[in-house]
Amino acid sequence: MQWEDRIGRRLKLRDVNILLAVVQSGSMATAAERLAVSQPVVSKAIADLEHILGVRLLDRSRQGVEPTSYGQALLQRGLAAFDELRQGVKDIEFLADPTAGEVRIGASDALAAGLLPVVVNRLYRQYPRLLVHVTTGVPDSLFRELRERNVDFIIGRLFSRIEEDFTSEPLFDEPIFVVAGAQSRWLARRKIELAQLLDEPWLLPPSESAPGALIAAKFRQCGLSVPQAAVVTNSIQMMSVLLASGGFLGMYPRSVLQFGAKHLTPKILPVRLPDQFAPVGIVTLKNRTLGSTARLFIDSVREVAKPLTKGSTR
Q1: Any idea where the domains of the chain sit in the sequence?
Q2: Which of 41, 180, 242, 287 has the least CB density, counted as fewest CB within 10 Å?
Q3: DSSP character string of the chain
């Protein structure tokens, strides 16, 4: 199949965009409505693509349409092409007005509560028209958002081996600490064993989540079972409100305590926990070109995170 003769002069980005809309909506009629065009226009675009490429791109049934293996291959590359064009437009906008820019970030709840607000405040003073989109969630959902190019990069704990289509950059080690509210009776103690706290009301993340697994490992390393949680939540904000009442205990990562100290009230209890190796880092999609604003934001993350690299065990 010769590119210049059969494809280069005939393949239209508009038609690929229509194909993407059809696959995402599962229906030509729905795609037509979404794109504000008639259904015959959608049908013709798909037919033209199939004729140019010489393969069937969609399987049609009463339930709707699904991409064939050929359609999936084209969409995977087409999505990358559209993303590169979008990044190019962002770069042009940034060059035209360096005070403006847009970046989309995927982050864990802990990083969104501690490190990221510091970075945003730092950049906003220099770039007052900067637009930052932050999507929080568990690692699996964030990786899916990155693969679908809905976020520019992810910042969070590097819990396990990063898959081959990603690139990771470790930033700093992230120990966790047992914390309590300012009124907790445990604050008067100079040394506490984790076993002494098993019967206290704990605020814990879901056991099936990555943070939950990390905390459970801490108890097991101390020869203990994970205590029964009083509240199960991933929300740092909710935990902080409950900790302030004085009756609950939880575990916070160091970056939340350091960067969120002005807004959060938990106090560290003198409980020694086993070391762990799950650093915080940045994850990007391999072979994807980041826009100027995303690169600027990542540089600022590195700068703000520098104090946390001191004494790193890595």
Answers
A1: 3-78, 97-173+279-309, 176-268
A2: 287
A3: --IIIIIITT--HHHHHHHHHHHHHT-HHHHHHHHTS-HHHHHHHHHHHHHHHTS--EEEETTEEEE-HHHHHHHHHHHHHHHHHHHHHHHHHHHH-TTEEEEEEEE-HHHHHTHHHHHHHHHHHH-TEEEEEEEE--HHHHHHHHHTTSSSEEEEE--SPPPTTEEEEEEE---EEEEE-TT-GGGG-S-B-GGGGTTS-EEE--TTSHHHHHHHHHHHHTT-PPPPEEEE---HHHHHHHHTTSS-EEEEEHHHHHHSTTT---EE--B--------EEEEEETTPPPPHHHHHHHHHHHHHHHHHHTT---
Fold of the domain built from segment(s) 97-173+279-309: D-Maltodextrin-Binding Protein; domain 2 (3.40.190)
Encoded amino acid at 198, one letter: L
Distance of CA 77 to the CA centre of its chain: 22
Enumerate the β-bridge partners of residue 154.
106, 283
Report the alpha-carbon angle 154-258-245, nearest 5. 105
Same fold, 3-78 and 97-173+279-309: no
Distance CA 139, CA 135 (A): 11
Distance CA 182, CA 265 (A): 7
Q: What digits encode the pLDDT tens for the residues 249-268?
A: 999 999 998 887 566 678 89
- In degrees and rounded to multiples of 5, residue 159 shows phi and psi of -70, -35
pTM value is 0.74
Q: For residues 116 and 298, what is the distance between their CA atoms, to the nearest angstrom?
A: 11
- In sequence order, the β-bridge partners of residue 55 are none
Q: 3-78: which CATH topology? A: Arc Repressor Mutant, subunit A (1.10.10)
Q: How far apart are CA 70 and CA 74, in angstroms?
A: 6
Q: Which CATH class is domain 176-268?
A: alpha beta
